[in-house]
Amino acid sequence: MRPSADIKRILMRVPNWIGDAVLCEPALRALKGLYPSAEIIALAKPRVAPVFENNPVLSGIMVYDVESTHAGYGGLLRLSRRLRAEKFDMAVLFQNAFEAALIAYLARIPERIGYARDLRTPLLTGRVELTGEIKKEHQVFYYLNIIKELGGKTPVLSPYPPTCAEKEIFPEIRLRDAEIRGAQGFLENKGFGGGEFLFGVSPGASYGPAKRWGVGGFREVIERLSKDTDSAAVIFGGKDDEEVCRELSGNLKVRHLNLAGRTSLREFIALAARMRFFITNDSGPMHVAAALGVPTVAIFGSTEPMMTGPLGKRTEVIRKKVECSPCFKKECPYGHYKCMSAINPDEVYAASRAFFTEAA
User: Fold this and answer.
1) What is the pTM of this model?
2) How does pLDDT run across 245-257, given as a tens digit for each residue?
3) Burial class (CB in 10 A: 0-12, 13-18, 19+), 40
4) CA spacing 20 to 30 A to 14: which of 60, 93, 176, 225?
5) At a CB cut-off of 8 Å and minimum separation 6, what does 347 contact?
6) Closest Cα partner for 249 from 283, 215, 206?
């Protein structure tokens, strides 16, 4: 597959989930390496658009809002007409749905590149085969493979976790100086500023309870770390995580700050960058923290770290390999959640404390 070399404007349809959006960022850089003089515009749902703000590779971000501006079939046609007016030469579809290919087709974008799946093959001009090999690789390579099929230079596939020599596959999120200052000022206004050591905690996971370690485990680790290192926890989560974060906060007997549901995604990113380390389930915040270079302790249950583990300079995965994992289910089919209940707080504490010691 070799699309025309005369590519000046590229539309990149990004994934809809925060973690997936973060993991496609190395492929974005690889795409720019393949077409260095081209303008690349990201088409993103509102929930993930902030991930790509301040990215030096992008020339702009277009928001695809199915809740208002682009609701229904009329909204889809409205978006397609707008894209047609932008005169893109190529669309690279990191998002898998049939709809992504349909929009690019209706926008009359000449080159339309993506995986041949979800009944959209006839709408693509460049069809990437979804092989059994790619399905077994880490998600970051799922996106990089599209660029490889375009003729771009991408890292060799390797087992998880990758070595530091393969840092080109580490996602990056860029913050503005004003955002960094704003996060510091926000924490100071909450009484958590100065030289105080803070660590982040994300006890939620949008996918379902099979990806959530118990509140009791988080509570024990937070209290031990707070007492042993004279630090404080900042609890993060979206609107869907408010209940579990409120439960955790209500059971803590140490100083902490619960920000669940109280920050925008971009505010969360800036605050997460201020943390000394981050403890999290397999979730969007996990990928954000790792992409920021924050040491990350990731707790895995029903999912497979070799496919969706955090990618960053310093990460540690905690998991228990039981006979039924990974099942990739939202809820435990057997009702016992052994893959999560078997994780001992001592393990999470030790990994977190090691990061604290390294940074001291």
Assistant:
1) 0.94
2) 999 999 999 999 9
3) buried
4) 176
5) 318
6) 215
